């Protein structure tokens, strides 16, 4: 699906292949960054990659590569020396010097590797785009504010690192009040330390350009404003979350299953197929940022709720993990987690590893789970056999194959059936209004009415029974 048109701005990807990262992983990381950048609305015209023992301290790439990069963006290709940042000159100079040292020390290595990587600048745009310059440089690492600033000065383009790209996508895709607040907090946390060197604070410091002291305090002022704003947003978030937990309490004891997994694995597609709902499905990374909850369809009694959740990605900025915790918490209240993986993606094992580690970080490794290897319609038959051997406990399926979805639905029902117990509930006539609640949360096997009320034989989940009993006892 190429939506290339002349309007879309162009971007170049930058990646350093560090020791211990093999070619396949490096290429996959860059391809993923490319999809992220594409999701942000850019067309990627080239990738500049280099093997190094570490990121160059000054501007990520070595001198030669920096020049290659600058040709694609129309910059000078050199980090202007002797013109350190507005403030803290000594520090900036130290950073630049150590950067030069670093590069001197590696120059030989770079030369050799540049040759080896002779084709590492790969154009993807074709002749038609040769004349257009990239306006964004996306770096596949977390870089320091001063590295970003130096890269900006050498390329003349806007520079984003991986965390910045992901935060920007989250920012655009957030829909619910809760997601918007969470993303805004993460974004401000990301921006605050970058105010000094990226010039992000430049506009705000118009008044402070005169004396250094004034500039410094203007910066401090900006930072304090950001801190205050974060505190305000956190308060607002807490109140939104209180409302949500009330709503959640109402769902307590209900039978719930959550779809979790790497971004683009097909969670929303399965959600749609299982619930007949119209949740957003898109070939975009992080299409879904809000947890949606819908009932399994056709309905079963008591009903089973399915939650769709935000996807994971490698090197997810830590702030976003923290901020999406509550969004995920909702899913974690599920009795069953369905791990969805895109089996047609050669890197899905890594993706599964990321999913597992994020979920265990937030304490979800205790919840019973099933592994779903999705998109097998794109996997050749012999590879499917290999997958069955490698993941004997997994279900191979395609969200696009109705029979697969029906089988998944049956296995979900069977899972909950196994955890239901039979019990008797006494419903006094004075509490008749609770009958709807009982039918909603339990399967009523028989009803027998006497003088004082009804005796209902039911089958339900133990947590649902507890809840019904406490309602009846009130
Ligand atoms: N061929 C094929 N494509 C699928 C299948 N399941 C999902 N897709 C496609 O994969 C892309 C991503 O699907 P989504 O359901 O949006 O993925 P997601 O896991 O919700 O992604 P995020 O919300 O970004 O985390 C869409 O283009 C879907 O049409 C499948 O079983 N087979
Ligand atoms: Mg989705």
Automatic annotation (TrEMBL):
PROSITE patterns reported for this sequence: G_HFLX
Coiled coil spans: 216-243
CDD domains: HflX
UniProt keyword terms in alphabetical order: Coiled coil, Cytoplasm, GTP-binding, Magnesium, Metal-binding, Nucleotide-binding
CC terms in the record's Gene Ontology section: cytoplasm
Location of region: Disordered: 74-133
Cofactor(s) named in the record: Mg(2+)
Keyword Metal-binding appears in the UniProt entry: yes
Primary location: cytoplasm
InterPro entries, per the entry: G_HFLX_dom, GTP-bd, GTP-bd_M, GTPase_HflX, GTPase_HflX_N, GTPase_HflX_N_sf, P-loop_NTPase
Domain called Hflx-type G: residue spans: 255-420
Keyword Signal among UniProt keywords: no
Residues that bind GTP: 261-268, 286-290, 308-311, 374-377, 398-400
GO molecular function list: GTP binding; GTPase activity; metal ion binding; ribosome binding
Subunit-level organization: Monomer. Associates with the 50S ribosomal subunit.
Protein family according to the UniProt entry: Belongs to the TRAFAC class OBG-HflX-like GTPase superfamily. HflX GTPase family.
HAMAP family hit by this protein: GTPase_HflX (MF_00900)
Protein's name according to its UniProt entry: GTPase HflX
Annotated source species: Sorangium cellulosum (Polyangium cellulosum)
